[in-house]
């Protein structure tokens, strides 16, 4: 699993945009990242967000690379 350091600024942005972003698919991505920043276990994130392991990994890689 990727180790991504989340700054306080990053966490604040995730906290805001996970509900405010106009595209619901992006909201799910932001929610998954926010939960990860809060130390929630991967299996719980997958269950809560209704996503696959592959999707979650893609979200982490995209966030880490800035894509």
Structure description:
- There is one protein chain.
- This protein is mainly alpha-helical.
- It is 72% helix and 0% strand.
- The protein has four helices and no strands.
- It has helices at 8-20, 24-37, 42-49, 53-65.
- α1 (8-20) runs antiparallel to α2 and α2 runs antiparallel to α3 (42-49).
- The longest helix has 14 residues, at 24-37.
- The radius of gyration is 11 Å and the shape is globular.
- The mean pLDDT is 94.
What is the compact description of this entry?
72% of the residues lie in helices and 0% in strands. It has helices at residues 8-20, 24-37, 42-49, 53-65.
Supply database-style keywords.
67 residues, mainly alpha, 0% strand, globular
């Amino acid at each position: 699993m990727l180790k991504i350091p989340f700054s306080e600024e990053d966490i604040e942005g995730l906290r805001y945009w996970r509900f405010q972003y106009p595209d619901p698919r992006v909201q799910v991505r932001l929610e998954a990242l926010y939960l990860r920043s809060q130390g929630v276990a991967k299996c719980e994130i997958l269950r809560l967000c209704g996503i696959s392991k592959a999707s979650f990994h893609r979200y982490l890689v995209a966030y880490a690379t800035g894509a």
